């Protein structure tokens, strides 16, 4: 386990989001990414809550933003170095963004995320 200061961890999340392909960023819609500084429920590293883009239709309007939550302490608990945290943050962000695009857990695992 490694301890990463909250501000540094938040920077890692921003860097992970910034590293996504530009075309994905352009089509992400109505989603907020937040950092929770305690552990995630049931050991989750991240959580997507919302309506995936693939399930939205013409009647989708006025909805609250989808939410992607990244859990700092859960990620730090499984990492041995800051470099491990950077890698795990990126993997977790990509995984949760995948859910926003309608990709399920099984397919994300097949893809290595």
UniProtKB/TrEMBL annotation:
Protein name according to UniProt: Metallopeptidase family protein
InterPro entries listed in its UniProt record: Zincin_1, Zincin_1_sf
The species this protein was found in: Nocardioides taihuensis
Any Pfam family the entry gives: Zincin_1
SUPFAM superfamilies to which the protein is assigned, alphabetical: Metalloproteases ('zincins'), catalytic domain
